[in-house]
Amino acid sequence: MADYIVRATAADNQIRAFAATTRDLVEKARSVHNTSPVATAALGRLLTAGAMMGTMMKGEKDILTLQIKAGGPINGITVTADSKANVKGYVGKPDVMLPPNAKGKLDVAGAVGVGLLQVIKDMGLKEPYVGQTVLQTSEIAEDLTYYFATSEQVPSSVGLGVLMEHDNTVKQAGGFIIQLMPFTDDAVIDALEKKLSEVTSVTSMLDAGDTPEMILDKLLGDFGVQITDKVPTSFCCNCTKHRVEKAIISIGKKDIQEMIDDEKPIEVNCHFCNTNYEFSVEELKQILKKSK
Ligand SMILES: [Zn+2]
């Protein structure tokens, strides 16, 4: 099953919902960053949320960034998505290892630690939208639920999960976001809360063979769920040697001259996809000519 997101409405548009299967993109993130299991789970959850939240944006060129700045050993997580659900991201310390938590699960909260969640939406306006909330549990899904309620005033339920294989590759990954519109009837809210309290984890549903459509049907079938859209999603970085060259040009003549004086090729790493770009001394000399 290739990765995709479905969007849906239910209860006569009083509910809007998203569900995603993201195994391939989380596995891609794991392999390019060589993340430990707990880092894979943390990054995978935020990538899954980012992909779904990216599709909430309207503009072709809109960019969403989710940033966790916290004191745990993973040293922060950054995820960026566009409105077509192309997503990329990285963690500060990909090889973080922690013992399992009290439930015997990967200790994402322990790895992330106490801190802040920042949501930045660049919609081509003068200033980007920035929402910032304090992490509630550092398990990521609950932190996003809190963000939606307090920063966007949209009551939401967020479920995110990453399940690992014994060989530490990704077995399943996915998530859902269910949001209530301001005019939602109390009866709908009560019934939905009851329904959500009955659900098992999103990864157990995916592992049992449920598709995103089936997950939404399980959660919202009683509310007349209607799938409105299906969007492919993938881990995708738009870096190129040309873009990296532009970045080097921007650091200025003096620093570039110093690199040339070292008489060694330089290597520039893209944090998002961990690709290394090498520039020879000869290339640096060409770059110097283009620099101001
Ligand atoms: Zn890249």
TrEMBL record:
Family: Belongs to the HSP33 family.
Domain of life, source organism: Bacteria
Primary location class: cytoplasm
GO BP annotations, alphabetical order: protein refolding
Function noted in UniProt: Redox regulated molecular chaperone. Protects both thermally unfolding and oxidatively damaged proteins from irreversible aggregation. Plays an important role in the bacterial defense system toward oxidative stress.
Source organism of the structure: Robinsoniella peoriensis
GO cellular component, one term: cytoplasm
Compartments in which it is found: Cytoplasm
Keywords recorded for this protein, A-Z: Chaperone, Cytoplasm, Disulfide bond, Redox-active center, Zinc
Record-level Gene Ontology MF annotations: protein folding chaperone; unfolded protein binding
Pfam families referenced in this protein's UniProt entry, alphabetically: HSP33
Designated gene of the protein: hslO
Name of the featured protein: 33 kDa chaperonin
PTM field: Under oxidizing conditions two disulfide bonds are formed involving the reactive cysteines. Under reducing conditions zinc is bound to the reactive cysteines and the protein is inactive.
Disulfide partners: C237-C239, C270-C273
HAMAP family: HslO
InterPro entries hit by this protein: Heat_shock_Hsp33, Heat_shock_Hsp33_C, Heat_shock_Hsp33_N
